[in-house]
What does this fold into?
Amino acid sequence: MLRLASCLALLVIATGPSWAGELAKPILKVQGAITTMNDGETAAFDLAMLDALPQHTIKATTPWYDGEHEFSGVVIGDLLETLGASGESVTVTALNDYSAEIPMDDIKDYPVILATRVDGEELSVRDKGPLFVIYPFDEHPDLYNEVIFSRSVWQVASLTVH
Ligand SMILES: Nc1nc2c(c(=O)[nH]1)N[C@H]1C(S)=C(S)[C@@H](COP(=O)(O)O)O[C@H]1N2
Ligand SMILES: [Mo]
It folds into this structure.
């Protein structure tokens, strides 16, 4: 985790305080109870920055795709730890303003990811991208229920920690 933190710190130092201006194309904003920001009160990420964090793959059968697929991306818990986040829950907001609350307990109990890719292909906005919250449904079949589906936000644009 230290390595993660220094990684982000290096990025901040390398690009200076106007880091956000250097972002190729911000796809995720994290705000709220975090201690590391790069754009005012926000930590903004483009795809390359998310790809620079440790990656995790979840093989899962979901309600959104036929059969089993490999979803890969960033573990939300790792991302939040990198940002010095603390709180009870995370509000995940989508491009269409849909939002859901993910309890911090879910994030502690499971490697819930913000998937950037399915079967190695970037998720397009048309295909529920650029970011899709994916739980490990196959390893934990008890997660396959409507409550968790409602937390499985697609077209994710921002996280608010509180
Ligand atoms: N961006 C976004 N994600 C979302 C939703 C939504 O409306 N918008 N609905 C949620 C709910 S309540 C459920 S049950 C599932 C439904 O996904 P579907 O509409 O693709 O079947 O997605 C979840 N993620
Ligand atoms: Mo739902």
Residues 63-64, 94, 96, 98, 146, 149-150, 152-155 surround MTE (ligand 1) (CB under 6 Å). Confidence is low (pLDDT under 50) at residues 13-21. The two ends are 21 Å apart (CA to CA).
